[in-house]
């Protein structure tokens, strides 16, 4: 694997070791073995300034390239990413603990897709303005101008994919970026920066800084930053947005969810069980759009629960993330394991939910890694803590609902929607008219019918309510990295003549 064992702040097109004496460090840990993988040098405030200066200097160079010139460089970067897919994916597996079967197929490829999508978008006129002829001698031109230097702050569940989703839109629109990966999963940062440099991105256009929330806060509040794109927890997101507001900076906030998956009474059993598994156990449950509140009709409960149970028993293969056939690795860190374990204990002992499937029979590959055995609770009610709060782990909560009587659908929709969060929602049904009605009445930004989780470059994604502001991807995603300019041009002399002339 080709990540550096000693990782430094990246600006001006290369890693920039700090003066030894002032350099604080932290380590990236492999969650499957608890062994350190690399030492990362925390970005000092002088280095943060230098990285932002580097981006400021690169901005006029990059933004004055034509859309086709920018697109060619981004397409080259996408080609390099695809060529090195396996190497980068292995590094992501080491850093996050996610199964290789996932990272190899998803993490790099879905990032490269977005680079290609926005390269083609800008090259084919996606950001073109328009001309309005006012009168024979005058016209109004409108432009989508880049905003300048943007801050990207990533999360630990999809490290390189998130870095690519943010930087693709940012760079394609002609901006420069200073990116901070999560301190829990930092290994991809300099790898991506070096690939951009190799593809021909001018030095300073994409820079990487390292550290925890303190470095993130200094980045967001820096006066030279024009826009902030953040992925992470709701509580951090609202602090970041408040700080950005002081400088009137634009924000894109991709935050958490506690999303409902509604299985309607007419759903196929296998279809329902497959969607429920995907919505809960992909990436060991560490997906922000996970559909963790699974509403199952009481009239169909037995067979649907049996189908879910069978898939848990035969289909979840917990193990060392690089091993063949493994589809569930450890969770990302020790602190996170303790949090998820705490919720499971609470679900059993305090909420007293029924345990439908208990993965504690799943053999652990070793004693050191941050393993959480998957679990499915049923007979859950809306007020239980495991139903209301963030868990972010392989924990499914089934909420049986009454599907008899006259107003069951109303009650169901109200319950599914009854959360401050509004990231995602899904429905499984053969009746598309009813499924669409349910989806249209749940306040959530990312919704699926008869599937879960797919998030292609073409699909704008972002949460409603406390789950976020703005979207990433799709045509809408890049607009957040632009601002509007209008120019009225007079082609005739004397447009302002006469008003202040002598009478
Ligand atoms: C969904 O919840 C929001 C508040 O979070 C509320 O304004 C809206 O009316 C609710 N919709 C339904 C159909 O319950
Ligand atoms: C630019 O105008 C569009 C509408 O055409 C609007 O949606 C967008 O928010 C504007 N951008 C900014 C930065 O104000
Ligand atoms: C059961 C579970 O882990 N659900 C989590 C899904 O992800 C969100 C964060 O985006 C958490 O709030 C949920 O707890």
Automatic annotation (TrEMBL):
GO-annotated molecular function: oxidoreductase activity, acting on the aldehyde or oxo group of donors, NAD or NADP as acceptor
Active site: residue positions: 254
Transmembrane residue ranges: none
Coiled-coil region(s): none
Xref: Gene3D superfamilies: Aldehyde Dehydrogenase, Chain A, domain 1 (3.40.605.10), Aldehyde Dehydrogenase, Chain A, domain 2 (3.40.309.10)
Recorded superkingdom: Eukaryota
Keywords, alphabetical: Oxidoreductase
Domain Aldehyde dehydrogenase: 20-486
Family: Belongs to the aldehyde dehydrogenase family.
UniProt-listed NCBIfam families: PRK13252.1
Protein name in UniProt: Aldehyde dehydrogenase domain-containing protein
Species in which this protein is naturally found: Trichosporon asahii var. asahii (strain CBS 8904)
Lineage: Eukaryota, Fungi, Dikarya, Basidiomycota, Agaricomycotina
């Amino acid at each position: 694997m080709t990540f550096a064992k000693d990782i430094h702040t990246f600006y001006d097109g290369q890693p920039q070791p700090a003066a030894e004496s002032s350099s604080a460090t932290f380590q990236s840990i492999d969650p499957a073995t608890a062994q350190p993988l690399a030492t990362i040098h925390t970005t000092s405030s002088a280095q943060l300034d230098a990285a932002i200066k580097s981006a400021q200097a690169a901005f006029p160079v990059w933004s004055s390239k034509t859309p086709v010139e920018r697109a060619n460089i981004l397409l080259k970067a996408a080609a390099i990413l695809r060529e090195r897919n396996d190497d980068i994916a292995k590094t992501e597996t080491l850093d996050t603990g996610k199964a290789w079967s996932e990272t190899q197929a998803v993490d790099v490829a879905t990032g490269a897709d977005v680079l290609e999508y926005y390269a083609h978008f800008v090259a084919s006129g996606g950001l073109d303005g328009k001309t309005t002829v006012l009168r024979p001698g005058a016209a109004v031109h409108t432009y989508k101008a880049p905003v300048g230097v943007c801050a990207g702050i990533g999360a630990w569940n999809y490290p390189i994919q998130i870095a690519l989703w943010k930087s693709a839109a940012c760079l394609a629109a002609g901006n420069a970026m200073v990116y901070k990966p999560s301190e829990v999963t930092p290994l991809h940062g300099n790898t991506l920066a070096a690939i951009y440099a190799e593809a021909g991105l001018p030095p300073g256009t994409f820079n990487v800084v390292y550290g925890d929330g303190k470095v993130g806060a200094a980045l967001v509040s820096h006066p030279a930053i024009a826009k902030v794109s953040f992925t992470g927890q709701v509580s951090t997101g609202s602090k970041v947005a408040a700080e950005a507001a002081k400088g009137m900076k634009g924000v894109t906030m991709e935050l958490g969810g506690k999303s409902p998956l509604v299985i309607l009474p007419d759903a196929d059993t296998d279809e329902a069980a497959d969607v429920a598994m995907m919505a809960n156990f992909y990436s060991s449950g560490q997906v922000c759009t996970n559909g963790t509140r699974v509403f199952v009709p009481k009239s169909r409960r037995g067979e649907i629960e049996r189908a879910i149970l069978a898939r848990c028993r035969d289909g979840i293969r917990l193990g060392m993330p690089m091993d063949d056939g493994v589809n569930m690795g450890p969770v990302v860190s020790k602190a996170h394991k303790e949090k998820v374990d705490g919720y499971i204990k609470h679900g059993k002992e305090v909420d007293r939910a029924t345990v439908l499937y208990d993965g504690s029979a799943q053999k652990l590959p070793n004693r050191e890694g941050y393993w959480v055995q998957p679990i499915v609770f049923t007979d859950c009610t809306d007020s239980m803590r495991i139903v209301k709060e963030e868990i972010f782990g392989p924990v499914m909560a089934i909420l049986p609902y009454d599907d008899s009587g006259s107003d069951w659908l109303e009650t169901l929709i109200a319950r599914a929607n009854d959360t401050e969060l509004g990231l995602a929602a899904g429905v499984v049904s053969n009746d598309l008219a009813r499924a669409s009605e349910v989806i249209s009445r749940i306040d959530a930004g990312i919704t699926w019918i008869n599937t879960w989780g797919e998030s292609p470059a073409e699909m704008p994604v972002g949460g409603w309510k406390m789950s976020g502001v703005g979207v990433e991807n799709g045509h809408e995603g890049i607009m957040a990295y632009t601002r509007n300019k209008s120019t009225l041009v007079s082609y005739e002399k004397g447009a302002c003549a006469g008003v202040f002339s002598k009478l």
